Amino acid sequence: MKTSIWVLLVFVSVFFLSCSKEMSYETPLDQPPATATLEGKWQFLHLITDIEASVSLVEQGVRFESRSSYKDTSTKNSGEINIDPATVKGKYGYTIDTYIHSTIKQDGSTVADFKEKFEFDIESTEFIAPYTKIGADSMYFPNGVLFAAPDPSDPTAQLVNPPGGTKYTIQSDTLVLYIHNDITQSDAGATTRMRGNVTAYYKKQ
After folding, report:
1. Which of 47, 50, 49, 53 is nearest to 17 (CA)?
2. Number of structural domains, the chain?
3. Residue numbers of the domain that contains 196
4. Is 146 helix (H, G, I), strand (E, B) or coil?
5. Apex 33 CA angle, 28 and 36, nearest 5
6. Which of these, 5, 123, 135, 204, is most buried using a 10 Å CB contact count?
7. What are the tens digits of pLDDT across the range 8-49?
8. How far apart are the first and last CA of the chain?
């Protein structure tokens, strides 16, 4: 019984990492507002991802906890975007090549600690994304945001980009998009939490 619970905890943790593709968007408090022109052509440089998911539950008086996470800087980056006052057009591609680190605890004591290889390729595809600019440092995309973190639970699944917003800064000739989320859900006696930070970098052309 305990073995099956441990397997379930790891599965649910990894599954909830996939929620990173439905992130809310915020900017770090210490980042200044954008001061340069947003419109124009930008070369896609890379993504920095830091994703963590956890799940906890009590079964027959025993508390089980599982935590899974990965950090990576994307490689094989390609593509560019062109931003006008109403739309973002372009294409991008990248690869995530890292390890998912998972731990399992029973009543506070670690019973398993392991890593598993995680690779994910996003092929370069063209897109058109209408947006509305909000203030000096925000954009809202009603038809889906520009990119999504990969789904570790099913690398073959099609990525879905839900409507959402992004905060941004322009530092010299570099456009930086900031993504942050922290979501807690409870269902059937299990509490899951997913925290994610993704930062995307573009260079002015």
Report:
1. 53
2. 1
3. 2-204
4. coil
5. 135
6. 5
7. 444 445 444 444 444 444 445 455 554 568 999 999 999 998
8. 58
- Enter the pTM of the model: 0.71
- Collapsing DSSP to helix, strand or coil, 85 comes out as coil
CB 92 within 8 A of CB 78: yes
Region 149-160: mean pLDDT is 48
pLDDT at 57 over 70: yes
